[in-house]
Predict the 3D structure of the following.
Amino acid sequence: MTTASNNYTHLLQEIEEHCKKCGRAPGSVELIAVTKNHLWEEIEPLYQAGCRVFGESRVQEALPKIENAPEDIEWHFIGRLQVNKVSKVVGKFTLIHSVDSEKLARKLDEVSKEKGCVTSILIQVNTSGEESKAGVSLEELEALIQVVKTMPNIEFKGFMTMAPLTENEAEIRETFRRVPRAEILSMGMSQDWKIALEEGATHLRIGRSLFSG
C-alpha cells in the first residue's frame, strides 16, 4: 500500500474510534479527501483503498480530474467560487460547500435551471470573524438562508466553516460551536478535525494528513 492509502485507512480508524469516544455513530461522519494540488496518479491509491468522496477548490484544476476519474466518485467543491465559474461547476459536483452571498446563490439557481438540475449547497459561515476568511457573517446568515430557501433549483443542506489557525483549543471549539445545527456541517481539517467531530461535524475536509509522509 502507498503512503496515501495507509494514511487513509489509519485515519478512518481514528475517526471511528473518536466517534465512539464521543458517543457518536461511526457512520455519522464523512471523510472528504482534499485532493487539490495532487495529480490523479497520486489520488488513485485513495480510490483503490475505498475512498469515494473527494474535495477540490480550484475549478480549472478539478475539471480534468473529474473527466478522467471513475464515475462513482462524489466530487465536492470546497474552495471560493467565483460567479463567472458557476456554469463550469454545476452538474459536476455533488455538493458545493462555499456559497457566501445572494449573488452567488442566484447564479447557481439560474444555471441549475438552465441545465435542468438541482444543485446541493452549503452556506459558508465566517464564525471566526477573521477578515482573511470568506463566508457570510452570523449577523447576515439568517437573511441569506431565507433567500436561498426560495430558490427552486438549489437544495440547501447546511453549513461550512473554518477555524482559525491557532493552538488555542477553546477558540477553535467556539468557532465550531457558533455554527447553527443542520443536516450537514462541514467543519474540521487535518489540524482540528477531532474538535470539529466533538462539536457535531458531519463532514471532515482532510488533505495534508492523507498525503504527508
Summary: The longest strand covers residues 154-160.
